[in-house]
Design goal:
Radius of gyration: 13 Å
Number of strands: 0
Structural class: mainly alpha
Distance between the termini: 19 Å
Strand content: under 5%
Bound molecules: iron/sulfur cluster
Number of helices: 4
Order of helices and strands: HHHH
Number of domains: 1
Largest sheet: none
C-alpha cells in the first residue's frame, strides 16, 4: 500500500480478515510467528517473505496496533518504526 490512505481505507483494512485464509502461516504452527528470540523472528520473517498476502498482513497489523508477533514480515519493533515514520511524514 502506498500513497495517501483515507480513514475509511484504514477502517476497512482493520476489519477485513478475508486475506488470512491465503496466508502462508495457515499451514504452519502459530507459535512460529510469536517467537521468543531474534533467531525465531528471522525464521518467521523468512516465511513471510514468500507469502502472497504479506503487504496486506503488514498493513492489517499496523492498522490494528498489533504488538505481538511477526506479521507481514515485520517484528513488533519494525512495525512500530514504520508507524512512527508514517506519522512523522504526515506531520
Ligand atoms: S505475511 Fe507472514 S504472518 Fe502474514 S499471513 Fe503471510 S505468513 Fe502469515
Amino acid at each position: 500500500m502506498t500513497g495517501h490512505v483515507s480513514l475509511r481505507d484504514l477502517e476497512d483494512l482493520a476489519m477485513d480478515t478475508s486475506w488470512m485464509a491465503k496466508g502462508k502461516c495457515r499451514e504452519l504452527p502459530p507459535e512460529l510467528f510469536f517467537p521468543s528470540d531474534g533467531v525465531g523472528v528471522e525464521v518467521a520473517k523468512k516465511i513471510c517473505m514468500t507469502c502472497k498476502v504479506r503487504s496486506t498482513c503488514l498493513e492489517y497489523a499496523i492498522a490494528n496496533h498489533i504488538d505481538h508477533g511477526v506479521w507481514g514480515g515485520a517484528s513488533e519493533r519494525e512495525r512500530r518504526r514504520i508507524a512512527r515514520a508514517r506519522r512523522l511524514a504526515k506531520a
